[in-house]
Amino acid sequence: MLEQLIHPLQVEEMRLLLRLRETRRRRRQTEPGNGLTLGERVSDAVASTVGSWRFIIVQSIILAIWMLLNVTAYVEHWDPYPFILLNLVLSFQAAYTAPVIMMSQNRQAEIDRRSAQHDYDINIKSELEIELLHQKLDMLREKEFADLITIIRGLEGQLAQTQKALLLLSNK
User: Residue 76: left (phi > 0), alpha (psi -120 to 50), or beta?
Assistant: First the structure.
């Protein structure tokens, strides 16, 4: 009867629990962020710099000064109005920063994917651990129930003996 009430974990579930326990031990030993290559560090630095308000403001000021100096007659015009040199510089900047930003985003996407997989594994592990706890609680309840039945049967036996003794005493 006890075996019918308790559903043991499947072999795959036990393997997953063991694998997750090993993963947790390994994660404690390795620190995140270590082992980044120079290119990864550079792409992260470029992406964080280019993606900031400070960069946008500084670049806007530089562009405004460039255009102002080339439009006014007070200085020599090194890049006159359609600003072809400025266009070349900005194209060059875009051509090099876009792939670097993409590298940083790809690396961040991989980190996010690993984090999501880790969260999923933790959720599965938690679910399995809760199932184990439910099984243990069911086993304890069944054991207590069996112990109570044994105690009740013992008390019934004692009650029957007491009733017989009282019946014998009342017949005398």
Answer: beta
- Long-range contact pairs involving 58-64 (C-beta distance under 8 Å, separation at least 24): none
Eight-state DSSP code of residue 33: T
Measured in degrees and rounded to the nearest 5, phi and psi for residue 7 equal -100, 110
Give the CA-trace dihedral at 62, 65, 71, 75, to 10 degrees.
-120
- Cα angle vertex 121, ends 124, 109, to 5°? 140
Residue position matching structure tokens 């051509």: 95
CA distance 23 to 114: 12
pTM recorded for the entire structure: 0.59
Cβ atoms < 10 Å from Cβ of 72: 9
**pLDDT digits 0-9 by tens, 30-64:** 545 568 899 899 999 999 999 999 999 999 999 99
And the tokens for 6?
A: 């308790």
Residue 116 structure tokens = 């999501």
